[in-house]
């Protein structure tokens, strides 16, 4: 195989979905936390989500000058919602049972423990290829 052909899409490894127990408060009949299916968010999806969460904000004291501002909370919620395959966060019946009308709000209701919500955010980032500063530092040390 030539070096060029190694770059062909047919040779690209596909990232796999992962199962993850997102909360201890939703369990099966034996008390075992339910597993959620998560998928990696693609670069294109990430860019679209970031764009949805970005607004132009006027620079204070400089008329006509603007800068971009990303609503990081909204961005994180949309990224997480995009990654969750199961449960179906867009299911109207599931949303109705929690009294919400969006996948992002449903996540916040289902994971009302702030620690679990943050842990899911970290897991979604990890399977989508993002690394943390601590991971980057550790990689440089080795």
What does this structure look like?
This protein is an alpha+beta fold and 142 residues long. 42% of the residues lie in helices and 13% in strands. A 3-stranded antiparallel sheet has the order 1-2-5. Strands 3-4 form a two-stranded antiparallel ribbon. β3 (54-58) and β4 form a beta hairpin. α1 (43-52) packs antiparallel against α2 (72-83), α2 packs across α4 (103-110) and α2 (72-83) packs across α5 (114-127). It is globular. The two termini are 32 Å apart. The model has no long low-confidence stretch (mean pLDDT 91).
**Poorly predicted ranges:** none
Q: Categorize the overall geometry.
A: globular
Mean of residue pLDDT? 91
Individual helix count: 6
Helix-strand sequence: EEHEEHEHHHH
How large is the radius of gyration? 19 Å
| Lateral strand order in the biggest sheet | 1-2-5
End-to-end separation in angstroms reads 32 Å
Major β-sheet profile = 3 strands, antiparallel
β-strand percent reads 5-15%
Helix content: 40-55%
Structural class: alpha+beta
Q: Based on DSSP secondary structure assignment, what is the total number of beta strands? A: 5
């Amino acid at each position: 195989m030539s070096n060029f052909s190694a770059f062909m899409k047919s040779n690209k490894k596909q990232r796999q979905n992962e199962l993850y127990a997102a909360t201890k408060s939703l369990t099966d009949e034996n008390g075992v936390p339910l597993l959620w299916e998560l998928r990696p968010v693609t670069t294109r999806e990430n860019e679209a989500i970031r764009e949805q969460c970005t607004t132009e904000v006027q620079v204070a004291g400089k008329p006509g000058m603007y800068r971009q501002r990303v609503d990081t909370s909204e961005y994180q919620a949309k990224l997480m919602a995009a990654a969750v395959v199961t449960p179906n966060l867009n299911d109207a019946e599931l949303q109705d049972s929690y009294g919400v009308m969006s996948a992002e709000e449903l996540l916040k209701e289902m994971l009302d423990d702030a620690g679990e919500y943050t842990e899911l955010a970290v897991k979604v980032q990890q399977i989508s290829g993002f690394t943390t500063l601590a991971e980057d530092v550790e990689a440089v040390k080795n």
